[in-house]
Design goal:
With 345 residues, the chain is of the alpha+beta class. It folds into 2 domains: 70 residues, Phosphorylase Kinase, domain 1; 200 residues, Transferase(Phosphotransferase), domain 1. It is built from 10 helices and 10 strands. The longest helix has 59 residues. The radius of gyration is 29 Å and the shape is extended.
Amino acid sequence: MSEVPCIDGFVFKRRLSWSGLCVLWRAEQTALERDVLVAIFRGDAPLGAIQALAQAKSPLVPEVIDIFQGEGRTYVVLEDPHAQGVVGLLGGRRLEAGQLIELGMRLAEGFAGLQAAGVVYGGLCPGCLYLSEDSEPVLPDLSPARFEAGVGEAPPDWQIPRGALPYAAPELQACPEAADSRADMFALGLTLYALGTGQVPFGAVPPELLLEVKRSHTVPSPCDVSPNFPAALAALLARLAARAPEGRFGDWDAVRVAFHQVREGLAGGDEGAYPEDSVIAPPDPEARARAGRTIRLSVSDLQAVRRELAAQRRGPSWVAVAIAASLSVIAAALLAIAIRLFFFA
C-alpha cells in the first residue's frame, strides 16, 4: 500500500503515516474542492473501533466523512484539520511546564470521549500527535484504535505502531485484549515526559526487549533532567506511567482535574505523592543539584566566551588604528621629500 493510490474523485498529495495495517494520506476531494485525510486499510481489517470513533465525536479524532470499499481495501475519509506534527513544530525544542499542562488537559478531555465509546487508542506517542490550526491536539491516524476489553471485536492482527512502542503500556504489549483506557494514560505520561525532557523513554532499547525493560527499569525523573521542571508535574506524570493500571487514575476526568490542580499549584507547589511502582523515577536531589551546577557553569562559560570574543573584536580595531597612523606618517614623509625635490632641486 506504499504506492500513490489512484481513486476516482481524489488526488493524493502526501503520505502522513503507514503501518502493516493502514496508510494515511492527505488528499484533495476534487468534486468538493476540499482537503481530506484518507486512511487506507487492508480489506480484511475490522473497523468496528473506527466506526465507534465516528460516533464518539471526540475532539482528538477528525470527523469521519465516509467509509467505502474497493479493490480489496477499505477507505476511511476524514475531515482534514490542516494539522502539523508536534515533533516537527518543536524542531528539537522542549515544551515548557505550562504548555505540557495545557496539552495534558486537552488530551484528557479528548480521551474521555474515547473511553465513553469503549475505545483504546493504543498508539499515542509524540510522532502521532498533531496540532490543528487552532492549536488543538489531533490524532489523525486511527489505525491503532481497538475496543476495550469486553466491549467489541478485537482486530486479530492488531499491532502497536513501531514508533509508539517505547510509550505503550506494559499490559498493552503483553495482553492487548485485556487492556482498557488506562493504557492510554500510561502513553500520555511518557509522551509528555518526552516532550518536556527531549528524551525518548528507555533510549535505544530493541523493540523485543522493551516490555521487560519497562517491568524492571525506570527513566530519570524529569526534575533530574531539567532542574526547573515542577515537582508536582513530575509526580503527576509518574502516576500516569505507573506499571500497573491500578496505580493510574480511575478515569480521564480525574486526569483532567489533576492537571488543573497542578496548574493552580505551580507557584506554591504541592509536590504530590509518587506511586510505588512507576517507570518514572522520583527526583534524585543529588542529580538535580548536579544538573543545576552544570547549567550555571555552562552559562558562566558562555559569558566568558562572549567576553573573549568581544576582546578579540576590540583587538584588531586598535591594530588597525596603529597601522593607519603609521601609513599616514610614511605618506607625509614621502610627500615632504617630493616637495623638496621638486621646488629645491
